Amino acid sequence: MEFSQSNPAPSRVSKILTIISFRWHFVIIALSLTVRFSEAAGNTGGGGLIGVSQKCDREGEVFPLPEILRNKCFTCLCKGGFVECEKQSCPSLQGCSIIPSDEKDGCCEVCKGCKVGNVTYKSGVEITQDCMTSTCSAGVLTRSPVQCYFPCKNPAPPKPGQCCPSCNTCSLNGREYKNGEEATLSGDPCVRCKCEMGSMVCTKNSCPVLACPASSTYLERGECCPRCNRSRIMYLPRTACFLGERSYPNSNTFRLDTCTNCTCVENTAVCERISCPPLECQPIHQAMTPGSCCPKCVEPALPKAQCIFNDIIYKNEERWDVDKCRSCKCDWGNVRCTEQMCPKNKHCPWGYKLKILPGQCCPECVGEEGVCTVFGDPHYRSFDGRVFNFQGACKYLLTSDCRSKSFSVRVRNDARESRAFSWTRTVTLKVREGRVTLGQKMRIKYNGKRVALPFSQGSLRIYQDGYSAMVETGVGVKLLWDGDSFLEVSVPHSMQGRLCGLCGNFNGNKSDDLTTRRGSPANHPNAFGKSWRVGGIKACSRPEEVKGPEPLCQKNGMTRSKAEKACNTIKFPVFSRCHKTIPLDRFFKSCTLDMCECPQGRKCHCEVLTAYARACQRSGIDIQNWREDTGCSHKRKWQR
């Protein structure tokens, strides 16, 4: 038996492969696979596929890896005309004390589970049945009876399917709890209370037996049970159990402490542990007697008519709030506090995000606004997150309320003497309050007349926001325009499923965002974009039927070198805090495309940096002074 840390040196395998298929003929791809294994903390590491971009033509189709590189940890899909490979993320194994060296779930390491008879439990699972709680923790199954606690004088008998009596209200220390909310007692964090259908049920469970040594445990403040702070990757024979720093053969029974007796059953330590009942006295008046399992109240506090908390005197039976999550009560000289427990690892459905509302303790799922972004040549990111390029040089419906017609946004794209690309030239917003036109160099018009900022008309507001102009409307639609080609349109969550145009339908499914005006799916962004053209042919700065020549970068290596040099600014340290949150690849590719056809004297890469900085800001990372550090702080002249 050997204990080993999961810290092998990185390994690199490089191969030159020739792939022949019905879509790709004699395409040579250079792939380099780097695999790292983290210290036995649960992830398989920060490996990745590195190589030359491979084109594809079936959007969303799974691209099989060559047999020599077949790896369950990677999935490759056709996205935006290129094959993109993503590494499967493995769940964290932090706190798992035993990781079997010969067990994996796909490509991920797993924490040792528990098996008793024909029943298998995953580590971390807790099941309560017949008033007994069974908890699996890294190969140790702890069974303990449920202890009941009721914070009221006359509890109701246990309901069918429940073990404990319940209080007829969900009031605890003067605070009302909603159905499903949990609370814990500050005097005993192991007592958990939950509001269920208008009744408060409180229980106390014993802590599960841990497989790690006592010297490798820690207890967080306010928590009931200790946790393991280190992990071990081990080869585990099927004939023994591992507990602490010892091994026990199968069928061996042993006493772990005065409250716990264990038996090794087929490589799983099954431990029966006594649950100690909650005590009414404060912890300072609790003590253990020799040979006993549970503490007892040995020195009851004398009744008092008042309590002192944070240097404030409270009368008997008086209640107060410590913060949004904690409330206390004076109980004959004893301060008894309860704390509302927020659910851990709460996930929200698409279109919602966790947010703590004013006056509340726990975050709730709140509807998120939809955001559509347009920048550069132009590049589009729909409300549902679909990314595509469309170089049409006409006027198009960007987005509109296709049900109630409460607003519409149209864009006019200009070729700017480019042979292949185009840029957004003007933006027109129509709402009940009037028509707003956003033009080049911050020329702002309202109903055809230029206006100075700030400007307001009814519920319509237009004002300067840094280097950009912000438009806010009464229907909740907002536009952010930088006076060049960057445009961000945000709509309230209530408009889900009501929109149409180049920005998509905002229904949470990005696979159907390329839906034409006629309601049919388009097989290419060009066909999709053309279907949303508005206005006559005079609005086009380049005929749609004429396909421009290839970008200069594909013909001129020097042009491409200059483009990449300008675009490398996105890798500057000023953006480093955001690099892990917002990947660079898509923005860097967009930047090089834009720079290849950038008109003389323009800083086209700054539009991509604007889009990247804005994406970082929406993710909660505000990048300061990036314009100064990247040479994009050229002053904009506001036109009046």
What's this entry about, in short?
The chain contains 6 helices and 53 strands. The protein is mainly beta and about 650 residues long. The chain has 4 domains: about 5-85, no CATH class; about 115-275, no CATH class; about 370-540, no CATH class; about 550-630.
Task: Describe the fold and architecture.
The chain is mainly beta and 640 residues long. It has 4 domains: 3-87, no CATH class; 114-273, no CATH class; 370-539, no CATH class; 552-630. Helices cover 8% and strands 36% of the residues. A hairpin with a 5-residue loop joins β50 (478-481) and β51. α4 runs antiparallel to α5 (605-618). The longest helix has 14 residues, at 605-618. It is found in: Secreted.
